[in-house]
Amino acid sequence: MTSKTQLLTVPPTMRAWVCRRRGPACSALELATDYPTPEVPTGSSPDVLIRVSNVSLQFSSEMLMKILPKLPFTSPWVPEIELSGVVVAAGGGAPAEVRDPNSHVIAFQNIPSAVIMGHGVLAEYVRLPGCQVARIDDGIDMASASGIIGSGSTALKMIRTAGVREGHTVLVNGASGSVGSVLVQLCKLRGAKVVGVASGGNEPMVRDLGVDEFIDYREHAPLPAYLAHQYAENPLDFVLDCVGTQALFVNSPAYLKPEGAVVNIGMLEGIYGTACNVLLNTWLPTWLGGVPRRYMMFSTPPSRDDAVYLAHLIEGRLRIPVDSVFEMKDATCAYERIATKRARGKVVVKVHDD
Questions:
Q1: Quick check: 20 and 35 in contact, CB under 8 A?
Q2: Cis link prior to 36 (omega < 30° from 0)?
Q3: Residues 262, 249: contact at Cβ < 8 Å?
Q4: Which residues, if any, are the signal sequence (predicted)?
Q5: Which of 53, 60, 173, 186 lies at 20 to 30 Å from 214 by C-alpha?
Q6: Which tens digits make up the pLDDT trace of 14-43?
């Protein structure tokens, strides 16, 4: 393997989007054309050098750009955490299945490295530990594959935390979004009945994912009142909220079983409002007005085990909807699309054609 990697060459510099100041993506990001390319791993290194094909953007990325201060004497940071790409080279310590050059892979950067160190993946080449890389079939669409780890890991943790299983009735709020669309499919794979909530324009897409019932939240506003009318006699087992609608939890006793739970990953009310809601929802006792239902919110760092599991699923049983694909030079337009909160699936930046 070492002799093969020595024959491969990569350019000394590359294109990479860097965040140089605090603010929205349109003003905070700049496209650097002379960013140093990572070194080729050699010897017994556990790392893999990847030529990036597509990067799937996170909704939280621009939020971080707006709140994280630009500290003096620090290098500009590269955003984003998940990608699809092609192996350029790998050290002998990397897992055997991701060592072969030209193998198609999905990969992720860990949160501390991406956020604190600024070593994100919105660049032409990335070097990552092999434990953060999983091989995929060469026939899988690379744009779609780029978004499976983040959304898939989050969806997996939601259903595992809740304990979704066959016979349960589950409401997925935000069923047309990047996480919600995966969540619907994973719940169906577990044998649950799924009620999907989205806008009416997304109904064909959500029904195609396999929901048993569809609710247009605009037509049936306010949503909690409609749910109370529909599910008072046969309450839901779980509410999986990908939007962050506080009213869904506050009113949940009217449509959620006493042993049920609301699992939330959304921040519709902003980072500070959501933080306050989490504290109240989790710790306020019922005798002080707390809601007599369980509430859960958590961080969802990706893991290689989840990546490998999801990579097998996308070979036949799991689809990752892609809302739109933008060229590398148009990444700020991709962030604008995410900011609309109307994306149907993943918003992707195409870095290379592979």
A1: no
A2: no
A3: yes
A4: none
A5: 60
A6: 999 999 888 888 888 999 999 999 999 999
In 270-315, alpha helices (H): 270-283, 304-313
Q: DSSP assignment, residue 102?
A: T
Domains 2-147+320-350 and 150-296 belong to one CATH topology = no
Structure tokens at 60: 């939280």
Q: Which amino acid is at 199?
A: S
One-letter amino acid at 249 equals: F
The CATH fold assigned to 150-296 is Rossmann fold (3.40.50)
> How does strand 125-129 pair with strand 47-56?
antiparallel
Q: What is the pLDDT of residue 5?
A: 40
Determine the Cα–Cα distance for residues 315 and 333; give it in Å rounded to an integer.
Answer: 30
Distance (Å, whole) CA 281 – CA 272: 14
Cα-flanking dihedrals φ and ψ of residue 97, to 5°? -70, -10
CA distance 84 to 272: 33
Burial of 312 (0-12, 13-18, 19+ CB in 10 A): middle
How many angstroms separate the CA atoms of 59 and 179, rounded? 11
For the stretch 290-332, pLDDT in tens is 999 999 998 777 888 888 898 888 877 898 899 999 999 999 9
Q: Extract the runs of DSSP E, i.e. beta strands, from 136-203.
A: 169-173, 193-198
SS3 (DSSP) at 26: helix
Q: What is the pTM of this model?
A: 0.87
User: What is the identity of the amino acid at 147?
Assistant: G
Number of other CB atoms surrounding residue 350 within 10 Å: 20
Is there a contact between 301 and 265 (Cβ–Cβ < 8 Å)? no
| Whether pLDDT at 115 is above 70 | no
What are the residue ranges spanned by the domains of the chain? 2-147+320-350, 150-296
What is the enclosing helix (H) or strand (E) of 225? helix 223-231
d(CA 323, CA 306): 23
> Alpha-carbon distance 51 to 354, whole Å?
9
DSSP code for 167: T
